[in-house]
What we know:
Blueprint: E1 5-11, H1 17-25, E2 33-38, H2 43-56, E3 60-64, H3 73-86, E4 94-98, E5 102-104, H4 108-115, E6 121-123, E7 125-128, H5 131-135, H6 143-149, H7 153-174, E8 189-193, H8 194-199, H9 213-224, E9 228-230, E10 236-239, H10 254-260, E11 281-285
Helix pairs in contact: 1-2
Amino acid sequence: MAVPVHVVIPTHTTRHLHRTLLGYAHQAVPATSITVSCDTDDPRIGTLLEQVVAETGTPLTQVYRARHPEARRSQTRNNGIRSLLGRGLAEEDRLLIVDGDCIPAADLIARHAEHASRGEFVIGNYIPLDERTTSGIPSDAGMHAYLEANVAAEQLARLDRIHRKARRHQVLRRFHLTKAHKPKIVGSNTSFRAGSLLAINGFDEEYMEWGYEDDDLGKRLHRSGARSVIAVREARIYHQWHPTSARAAWQSGSVAERFHSRLPTRCERGIENPVPQHELRERSLS
């Protein structure tokens, strides 16, 4: 691997996490490290991580704290990054931020690594799986063959459309003819040069619950001069189906107002100067 790639997986549940972790254990090119950052101290997650380490021999680091009343996605991601900084993260290393319910394609790490020299952040995307396909995924090394065999032509066509649209936004950005956050990052599958993310203080922890935190990060990265690389066609993950609860209307209200206001490129509450939280704990599993 030309550059170290550290995977950060934020989660608050064990749902689908087992198969997600197996997907990273069976990569063609392994990750330099895998950090599972938990927005809860649910002991079931820790037990699951121990199981994965026993099954695969893949070392994992767990970062966790007690749950707050509100979901803290940005802070949970930053907690994983702060842990890596304490373990010697270098500015030229890559941070791959993913989601706990998404299985990586077998070559995901390799794809992000090979594009790293072209820009400060590499944007991938996902293939949504239906309930039937999700229920049939094997929990072993055969999962990647199963997933590739169950990709429909229309799903590949969707990725192609998204890829072309993102490339178009890249061109429009040169002439200041696109929105501030486009090309749009995908919080479940984007890798970053660590130094570029640190320069803008990471994810803005004043975004809580759900909505706009990824667009805010993209806006600040673009504003900082960081170069995007579009790898939607090549860097794929598979989003496992699960029922979802109705979300609050995030297009309006205080979160939307925050996103549309003029805020500094380097957020105030991020990797440095985090929003106060419960005591953070960490353990290495190998």
